[in-house]
Write a structure and sequence with these properties.
Bound molecules: glycyl-adenosine-5'-phosphate
Number of strands: 23
Shape: globular
Largest sheet: 7 strands, mixed
Helix content: 25-40%
Distance between the termini: 37 Å
Strand order of the largest sheet: 3-9-10-16-13-12-11
Radius of gyration: 25 Å
Length: 448
């Protein structure tokens, strides 16, 4: 069992229940499902893409737009191949691998607890392991019409290397001075030996990364600043306090480039696991890219005239892992007073895929209810549903985390009022239909 796996799940539901809900409601499901799926690749359906976009927007707003000292970037996925030599990925970015000669399966040598008994050796059930060898995790491709060594390129294993490549240009065009940061959100690819735990360890995933460039004398101050800032972000997303912790890295754990590092971890059903890393990467990246590109990436302090290579404080969060943590944190099976159970996703309203559902009490009331919903959809993702009894329609919305349902009933035409039902408390209040937009405005973005 992995060191941090709990003896019993810390959640009163099984991981399979959450995975099933995600598939059933179109949040997340296996990629290329009609061909039997492809291990380590996942698709986000109509509701999943809304959740993911809302999370990315919250990150972008907080890390880029609300700050004077951070600039945004959207770089190409494929960088010049020398980038990955400079970064150390070609040499170091590998996991220890073993094969079983009997069952032909392949495992990470440091995760053999996952292997279980060997299905090809029923008598002994022991695997017949090969010696350990290193397996590079970068996904390769070829550029141009030839497929020889000179045409090899890599799908980026992390988004940050392009930030280092573009450091000088972004600094110049934005006229930023040290300290300042460059942030981007984008896909990363790793040929993981054992993708597992749903989307937690995938072969294609998204990262939201910030590289913050500082004077060497200020690196500790900024490391602390960003660790606290990132923790505050995760709290604002609504993670329960007892499911969030910071784990500083021991010196022997540090990546080849890192001088200090801490993981922000979430308590998943399968144990405490990293969702974000905060690293003091020192001047490793800019120094190496200077060396490999031949371009000087040092800067001059305009006041003191000191010339130095900035140190980098990095915050790197997995978008997919955070989505999974949000789903796990929010998912509950509740027994109601009438003896029924409901599944509910308690997502922060700003993250919920659908913000408001409009439900006419009868199909006869469709016209004014549709008009109300169309008025709301320009601002918020909304949903119109007239089928089934009202209780079932509420349940369908609870299950995907819709924070507010608005019911148009037989009195609404005459008194101009609608009933708003809140997801978590299930309380209902009657308010003016004209006031519904400002009602939502006051409640949807709170705290994020
Ligand atoms: N630039 C630093 C970097 O990439 P990392 O710890 O390897 O550091 C950062 O990755 C974050 O990316 C992790 O905290 C995790 O959330 C996410 N991540 C890494 N590998 C992943 C994978 N195979 N599947 C999903 N997310 C992954």
């Amino acid at each position: 069992m992995p060191p941090d796996a709990p003896a019993a799940s810390p959640y009163p539901w099984r991981m399979d229940d959450l995975v099933a809900l995600c598939a059933r409601r179109g949040l997340i499901f296996p990629s290329s499902e009609i061909y039997g799926g492809i291990n380590g690749f996942w698709d986000y359906g109509p509701l999943g893409v809304e959740l993911k976009n809302n999370l990315k927007a919250a990150w972008w707003r907080r890390v880029v737009r609300e700050r004077d000292d951070v600039e945004g970037l959207d770089s190409a996925i494929i960088c010049h191949p020398r980038t990955w030599e400079a970064s150390g990925h070609v040499e170091h970015f590998s996991d220890p691998l073993v094969d079983c000669r009997a069952c032909k399966r392949r495992f990470r040598a440091d995760q053999l607890d996952d292997a279980g008994p060997c299905p090809a050796r029923p008598g002994s059930s022991e695997h017949d392991w090969t010696p350990v060898r290193r397996f590079n995790l970068m996904l390769k491709t070829f550029i141009g019409a030839t497929e020889d060594a000179a045409a090899v390129a890599y799908l980026r294993a992390e988004t940050c290397q392009a930030i280092f490549n573009d450091f000088k240009r972004v600094k110049e065009v934005s006229r930023q001075k040290i300290p300042f940061g460059i942030a981007q959100i984008g896909k990363a690819f790793r040929n993981e030996i054992n993708p597992r735990n749903f989307t937690f360890r995938s072969r294609e995933f998204e990262q939201a990364e910030l590289e913050f460039f500082v004077h060497p004398a200020e690196r500790e101050k900024w490391f602390q600043h960003w660790l606290e800032e990132r923790l505050a972000f995760h709290r604002a997303l609504g993670f329960a306090e007892e499911r969030l912790r910071v784990r500083p890295h021991a010196p022997e754990e540090l990546a080849h480039y890192a001088n200090a590092a801490a993981d922000i971890e979430f308590l998943f059903p399968f144990g405490w696991q990293e969702i974000e890393g905060v690293h003091d990467r020192g001047d490793w990246d800019l120094r190496r890219h200077s060396e490999y590109s031949g371009k000087d990436l040092s800067v001059t302090d305009e006041e003191t005239k000191e010339r130095f290579t900035p140190m980098v404080i990095e915050t790197s969060v997995g978008v997919d892992r955070t989505c999974l943590a949000l789903l796990a944190n929010g998912y509950a099976e509740e027994r109601l007073e009438d003896g029924e159970t409901r599944s509910v996703l308690r997502l922060h309203p700003a993250l919920a895929p659908i913000k408001v559902a409009v439900l006419p009490l009868s199909k006869k009331l469709a016209e004014p209810a549709r008009r109300l919903e169309r008025g709301l959809r320009r601002r918020w993702s909304s949903f119109y549903d007239e089928s089934g009894n009202i209780g079932r329609r509420y349940r369908r919305q609870d299950e995907v985390g819709t924070p507010f349902c608005v019911t148009w009933d037989f009195e609404s035409d005459t008194d101009g009022k609608v009933t708003v039902r809140e997801r978590d408390s299930m309380t209902q209040e009657r308010i003016s239909a004209d006031g519904i937009a400002s009602y939502l405005e006051d409640r949807l973005e709170v705290g994020l």
